[in-house]
């Protein structure tokens, strides 16, 4: 039976507790030094990088159906042209191309419609020099092809959704989102932004109304309501 050396160093309880605290502190400091500053594993991939919103040159167009027997532009077609002009004013300042079908069965109606569409564009404020007449070839003489209006403009867009490059079950336990995750959100944001250049930099601020600001501050200090009236949604209030 081996004898114990009474002079050998022993680890007492206080020293063992101190050693445990040092090991815990080292573990915590290792977590704090992670790149994302989180103490738990986080999703490393970002849907904004997989589906980035970019500004590109894109065609805006609208097709106006033409019946062979029509000789005057309809009310619905006229409203469509006016809506197209509003879209053009909001997004572009270049040329508008009026493409008429060539060799289609509705050629008589196309000729009358095209002339009246051009007149409607000019009446809506589009300079005649910015309207370009062109043609496109139809697949056959029996086609009742429409007249197409189009222009090019800077547009916010992202890649197409619905892509599944790998099986979802392959990364089911990796704590990572799938490739198509966030694509619909990015597409909706790109489609809803009114001014695509807002995604690059903010617009300049409008000048302040010093007179109105002084009235509001004076009213706040005196505890009274402003004397000026404002109309909001058809209702005026003081």
TrEMBL record:
Residue runs in coiled coils: none
Segment forming the signal sequence: 1-32
Keyword annotations from UniProtKB, A to Z: Signal
Region (Disordered): 218-238
Biased composition (Polar residues): 221-231
InterPro entries in alphabetical order: Pilus_biogenesis_CpaD-related, Pilus_CpaD
Record's protein name: Pilus assembly protein CpaD
Organism: Rhizobium paranaense
């Amino acid at each position: 039976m081996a004898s114990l050396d009474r002079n050998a160093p022993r680890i007492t309880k206080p020293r063992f507790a101190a050693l445990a605290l040092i090991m815990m502190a080292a573990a915590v400091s290792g977590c704090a030094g992670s790149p994302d500053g989180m103490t738990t594993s986080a999703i490393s991939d970002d849907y904004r990088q997989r589906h980035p919103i970019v500004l590109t040159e894109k065609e805006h167009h609208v097709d106006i159906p033409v019946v062979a027997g029509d000789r005057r532009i309809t009310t619905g077609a006229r409203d469509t042209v006016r809506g197209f002009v509003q879209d053009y004013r909001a997004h572009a300042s270049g040329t508008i191309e009026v493409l008429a079908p060539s060799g289609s069965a509705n050629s008589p109606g196309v000729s009358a419609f095209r002339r009246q569409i051009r007149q409607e564009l000019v009446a809506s404020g589009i300079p005649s020099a910015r309207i370009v007449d062109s043609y496109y070839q139809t697949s056959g003489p029996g086609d009742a092809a429409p007249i197409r209006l189009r222009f090019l403009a800077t547009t916010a867009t992202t890649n197409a959704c619905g892509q599944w490059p790998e099986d979802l079950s392959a990364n089911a336990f990796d704590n990572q989102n799938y490739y198509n995750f966030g694509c619909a959100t990015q597409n909706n944001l790109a489609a809803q932004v009114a001014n695509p250049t807002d995604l690059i930099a903010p617009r300049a601020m409008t000048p302040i109304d010093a007179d109105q600001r002084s009235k509001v501050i004076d009213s706040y200090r005196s505890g009274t309501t402003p004397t000026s009236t404002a109309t909001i949604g058809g209702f005026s209030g003081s």
